[in-house]
Amino acid sequence: MNALSRREEDTLLKVTKARALRECDTVVKAFAACASGRTVSVAWACKDQLKVVQECMVQFTAPEPMEAIRKEYLRLRAQNPDSPEPILK
Which residues cross the membrane (predicted)? Predict the structure, then answer.
């Protein structure tokens, strides 16, 4: 089977977002520090930091990287059909 269930797709997205946040930790922390104590002004005061966070995250969550992750997941699932869910690292 070469398709993912909705649950598998959601799980891959969650795992990928978590990995992206780990990989982009320093820029996320810089944005969080900028946003700390702000409300409306965060929109213009921290826009440069937000852009850096978005650029970092898209490296992992854009359609191309997500497709590569799906393919790897399907490959691992085909290798281990008895395993409930392959683990991606």
Answer: none
pLDDT tens profile 33-86: 999 999 999 999 999 999 999 999 999 999 999 999 999 989 988 887 776 666
Q: Compute how many other C-beta atoms are within 10 angstroms of the C-beta atom of residue 31.
A: 22
Q: What span, in angstroms and rounded, lies between the C-alpha atoms of 45 and 34?
A: 8
End-to-end CA, the chain: 22
The pTM for the full model equals 0.77
